[in-house]
Amino acid sequence: MGDEIPSSHFSSKDLKIFTDRLRVETQLVSDWIAQDRFSFEQKMFGYELEAWLIDRNFRPAPINEQFLQALDDPLVVPELASFNFELNSSPQRLTDKVFTDMKQGLSQICNRCRHHAQLLDADMLMIGILPTVRETDLSLEHMSNSPRYRALNEQVFRLRQGRPIQIDIKGQEHLTTRHDDVMLEAATTSFQLHLQIPADLAVRYYNAAIILSGPMVAATGNSPYLFGKHLWEETRIPLFEQAVSIGGHKHSEAGDLKRVSFGTGYAKNSLLECFLENRDHYPVILPVLFDEPPEALAHLRLHNGTIWRWNRPLIGFNAEGEPHLRIEHRVVSAGPSIIDTVANAALFVGVIKSLVDEAIPQEQILSFSVARHNFYAAAHLGLQARFHWFNGNYLDAGEYILKYMLPLAHTGLERLDINKDDIQRYLGIIEQRIITGQTGANWQQRYAAAHDDDMGALAAAYAMQQQQGKPVHEWPI
Question: How much is the average pLDDT of 380-388?
Answer without folding.
Answer: 96
